[in-house]
């Protein structure tokens, strides 16, 4: 009986592999068309600044409106885009569109854009960012580029050169999903980060485990000592806000404030706030 059950498990396992491989292959084919036909859209999620008591930035998050499947999550297609190299044209489109939208917002609102590690292998990256900013008219310090710790698995010499090149253009650099990778504290001193984004997993634990607070506080203290800002990702509960405020976290992001929203709604949100301030 045990043997039969084992065989059943094995069959299920190989069947899963088949569907996964099939799923991936179909995403790959469709992704080429998506780039050609412009099936992507950017959503924007606001970041709440605790000191200013208002939204101070939006993170651009890509959405794929698949003609048959509907909305496909970036979690499902970004890895495929990275493996196929399609992340390069997709990333360029994301940056252009994010800058174009941000240029219509009030000047004290920034835009954050996720960059894949694969994009850093492109020799013209710094120049592409420079050109895109120039074309959109967006001030460089209104753009924050989000990278992840996986970047440090790459050749650190050239990664460092590109990061410094981006700093020279005048953009900000944020370290995304901090604490989930193979974080080495030495990177925090070697690279010119403006911000650390504390991963959602730590924020969830904040209300569940006593020690989670100690980790989050240690990260915010360290960031402050290195003159870096901190954003807490995935804030969903009011109790988390009070804890994060006490720790000295600079900005908060999460469903408690807003889910990612279409560009038109983001523009309404910030322009509406600006209008309210003018009236006051
Ligand atoms: P990320 O950069 O860490 O973005 C934050 C993700 O957390 C977003 O998922 C956002 O919708 C989600 N999130 C925000 N607040 C909450 C919350 O309170 N609760 C929960 N459960 N989730 C929350 P999304 O939009 O599905 O994106 C997933 C990931 O895909 C991103 O993680 C990023 O790594 C990648 N991604 C998205 N857009 C792009 C892009 O334009 N370029 C690249 N290279 N990667 C992207
Ligand atoms: Mg991000
Ligand atoms: Mg993140
Ligand atoms: Mg995250």
Can you lay out the helices and strands and say which pair or pack?
Blueprint: H1 2-37, E1 40-49, E2 54-66, E3 70-72, H2 74-84, H3 87-102, E4 110-114, H4 125-136, E5 143-148, H5 156-169, E6 172-178, H6 185-190, E7 195-198, H7 200-205, H8 210-225, E8 229-232, H9 238-247, E9 251-252, E10 261-262, H10 263-279
Parallel strand pairs: 2-4, 4-5, 5-6, 6-7, 7-8, 8-9
Antiparallel strand pairs: 1-2, 1-9, 1-10, 2-3
Helix pairs in contact: 1-2, 3-4, 4-5
One magnesium ion binds at residues 177, 199-200, 233.
Question: Care to describe what's here?
Answer:
The longest helix has 36 residues. This protein is globular. With 280 residues, the protein is an alpha/beta fold. The N and C termini lie far apart (76 Å). β4, α4 and β5 form a beta-alpha-beta unit. Strands 1-2-4-5-6-7-8-9 form an eight-stranded mixed barrel, surrounded by five helices. The protein contains ten helices and ten strands. The mean pLDDT is 91. One magnesium ion binds next to loops. It comes from Croceibacterium salegens. This is EAL domain-containing protein.
